[in-house]
Design a protein that fits this description.
The protein is α+β, with helices and mostly antiparallel strands. The protein has helices at 12-21, 114-129, 143-146, 176-185, 189-202; strands spanning 24-31, 34-41, 43-46, 52-59, 72-85, 97-111, 152-167. The chain is built from five helices and seven strands; from the N terminus they run αββββββααβαα.
Length: 203
């Protein structure tokens, strides 16, 4: 994606944290000569060799998987918070803009076996059930229920490139305090999250 130099983030530790916390992404490949995207969890993990990968699965009813080929390049998009920034908050006249965080991950896809797919589902459920009031476990589900795994296709993506944009008014440092204050006063979660990101970057 196009990233102006001021907004590019190359902090791999910070980006990894973002991917773990914002793992619901969009998997994109080409289906019948058209771009195709599916919104799914894409978990950042490491393979047996310690290489970073994304792991996910989609329904076999989704035609996207029929265009999966081992070593086919795909794009995964992850969106973070975003917020409209009014130029009325600036000391000097300027057009309004939008602050946001987004990460694009490129890589080569490999289809998983049914056993590997089931193992990935166990990890996925365990991660998100950890904070549930009454956590469930796939270990306690019947074979009949778990047979649904036959209706999905699991895959992993060997990461080849990560591009991260953190557009947080870096070119308007003189207006940061006002922008943060105005965003924080808004009711929407996106504005408050961007305000917090800007405050953290300035601390």
């Amino acid at each position: 994606m196009y990233i102006p130099p001021h907004y590019e983030n190359k902090d791999t530790k910070e980006i990894r944290k973002f991917l773990v916390q914002n793992s619901f992404g969009i998997l994109i490949n080409v289906v019948d000569n058209k771009p195709w995207g599916t919104h799914i969890p894409l978990e950042l993990e490491n393979d047996v060799n310690g290489n970073e990968i994304l792991v996910g699965h989609i329904a076999k009813a989704n035609p996207q998987w029929t265009y999966f080929k081992d070593n086919a390049e795909v794009l995964c998009i992850f969106n973070g918070p975003h917020a409209y920034v009014s130029s009325s908050w600036y000391k000097e006249e300027e057009v309004p803009t939008w602050n946001y965080i987004a990460v694009h991950v490129y890589g080569f896809l490999k289809i998983l076996s049914e056993e590997e797919t089931m193992a990935s589902m166990h990890r996925l459920v365990n991660k998100y059930e950890a904070t549930s009031k009454h956590p469930i476990s796939l270990d306690n589900m019947s074979k009949t229920t778990l047979r649904q795994v036959k209706g999905v296709v699991g895959f992993q993506i060997q990461i080849t490139d990560i591009q991260a944009t953190y557009k947080l008014s870096q070119t308007r440092t003189e207006d940061h305090a006002k922008i943060i204050s105005e965003l924080h006063e808004r009711d929407d979660a996106g504005s408050k999250a961007i305000a917090s990101e800007m405050r953290e970057k300035n601390s």
